[in-house]
Amino acid sequence: MARxxxxxxxxxxxxxxxxxxxxxxxxxxxxxxxxxxxxxxGGEVILRSQAHVVGDIHHQSLAIERxxxxxxxxxxxxxxxxxxxxxxxxxxxxxxxxxxxxxxTPPGRVDSLGSAExxxx
Length: 121
Description:
- The chain has no helices and ten strands.
- Strands 1, 2, 3, 4, 5, 6, 7, 8, 9 and 10 form a ten-stranded mixed sheet that branches.
- The protein has 121 residues and is mainly β.
- The radius of gyration is 14 Å and the shape is globular.
């Protein structure tokens, strides 16, 4: 099992099965199939079926596959063009003073979303 106790920043970052990161993860595209303990900051964030994330996720788009574990807050931030990313078929849950969107997900395994390819971003 690969373990990293540090802050990780990259353009694109894949955290493979068996990998464990304890710290801040920041990249334009983050794919998690291992374990992350700490906040994730990314434009596009994908939690694969074996992902185990404990920490807040700041994102422009977020996809969670069936079986992924996520315990934290999902916070959608404004896009690079300054506009809120388009939302499809969802109601706004909470308006936060910094114009980001915050939604709380209860701890547990996600079993209602299907694969990332089927989730609208």
